[in-house]
Amino acid sequence: MFNEEMRSEQPLRWAMVGGGRGSQIGYAHRSGATRDGHFQLMAGAFDIDADRCRDFGTNLGLSADRCYADYLTMFTEEAKRDDGIQAVSIATPNATHYPIAMAALESGLHVVCEKPVTFTVVEAEDLKRIAQKHNRIFGVMYGYAGFQMIHQAREMIQRGDIGEVRVINMQFAHGFHAQEVEKNDPGAKWRMNPAVSGPTYVLGDIGTHAFYMAQLMTNLDVESLCCTRQSFVKSRAPLEDNAHVMMQFSNGAVGTLWASGVNAGSMHQQKIRIVGEKASLEWWDERPNQLSLEIQGEPARVLERGMSYLHKDSSAVDSDRIGGGHAEGFFESWSNIYSRFGVVMKAANRGDQATIDATWYPDIDAGIEGVRLLERCVDSADNGAKWVKYHD
Ligand code: NAI
């Protein structure tokens, strides 16, 4: 089992930028990173407000002198210490990812960065180049990709269990922003501001998750796409609160992605349906322990996490923490990803490329593809929903 034993090596000394008190996703990072003993929180620039950062960090058990007013001071001061940080996670609003990640890499740190990693593909490729130059790991927090049944689906598709893939349906369409909630919600407000959110809202905020998981499962490359996007709450323009994307894949398959914050009444509706020539697979993040398998002409089946019929050599099995029947969820998915970040970062520290190559994790290439999706969708949608090439 991938997670069963704490690694004999020391935990990586780890810090966070962002993810302070009241943030949406800070706790998920701390929970995921520390669960299996790969990371130990030593420092933080958790908040845009220095006093709040210190108060929050000391409440978490950090010494006050390692709760920093800003990330640059943290990287500089930590580099002077014998026990300085080795890795950092960036959980700040989107506009800040690029400068913070660049400064972290230049300071010799491994990086875990939130999505979308940057505003442009050029910037994301820049981060890849600098990470390679410094021999640092760059992980991207596609937090749903650690669910075991995603990896069962991936293994089944790669083995040809459903035949050639024909149709890929991706959606992440919640209803939480059906009204203009950003008036009273700072976490929603920055998402509707292009200067902070970037060129998209729902496509980048949630569409990138479904897109990455479909890529992970099918390993298919997009050839071209056509996007239409709307701002149903008018004040959100030019950013979209709803978008539909049609895609053509290199093997002849076609797909759609629906990203929405105005799907009234819906909690998440993050679903991926992969239709092959013999059978279809469907996964839903509100029932993550199950994978639906529908073989043409046979009764539909539901595959359950933790069962002996799952493919043995996939992350579906080696990420298992407790047997079938017990529900695993979001935090386990994050821990599964963070454990892999820990494994590859430690491998990089000891120059063990073989372990890095053998370990799946959402890397900077996954981050680049997410940003490329957004660039191409904007190009298409803002030019009359024309079909555009996915690659240059
Ligand atoms: P939020 O607005 O709830 O929290 C942002 C936090 O960052 C706050 O504590 C704020 O004080 C701090 N901050 C802002 N600028 C900072 C700076 N320059 N230095 C240090 N701290 C700073 O934002 P939320 O919702 O937690 O999102 C953060 C990032 O995580 C975004 O990029 C978002 O797209 C991503 N996200 C990813 C999710 C996932 O499933 N992987 C889920 C939710 C958000």
Describe this structure in words.
There is one protein chain. The protein is α/β, with parallel strands linked by helices. It folds into two domains: 158 residues, Rossmann fold (3-Layer(aba) Sandwich), CATH 3.40.50; 186 residues, 2-Layer Sandwich (Dihydrodipicolinate Reductase, domain 2). It is 35% helix and 21% strand. The chain is built from 13 helices and 14 strands. A nine-stranded mixed sheet has the order 13-12-11-10-6-9-8-7-14. A five-stranded parallel sheet has the order 2-1-3-4-5, sandwiched between helices. α1 crosses α11. It is globular, with a radius of gyration of 21 Å. The protein binds 1,4-dihydronicotinamide adenine dinucleotide. InterPro entries: Gfo/Idh/MocA-like_OxRdtase_C, Gfo/Idh/MocA-like_OxRdtase_N, Gfo/Idh/MocA_oxidoreduct, NAD(P)-bd_dom_sf.
Task: Indicate the topology.
Layout: E1 12-18, H1 26-34, E2 39-45, H2 50-59, H3 71-79, E3 87-91, H4 97-106, E4 110-113, H5 121-133, E5 138-140, H6 148-159, E6 165-173, H7 186-189, H8 194-197, H9 202-218, E7 222-230, E8 242-249, E9 254-260, E10 271-276, E11 279-284, E12 290-295, E13 301-304, H10 315-318, H11 330-349, H12 353-358, H13 364-381, E14 388-389
Parallel strand pairs: 1-2, 1-3, 3-4, 4-5, 6-9
Antiparallel strand pairs: 6-10, 7-8, 7-14, 8-9, 10-11, 11-12, 12-13
The structure holds 1,4-dihydronicotinamide adenine dinucleotide.
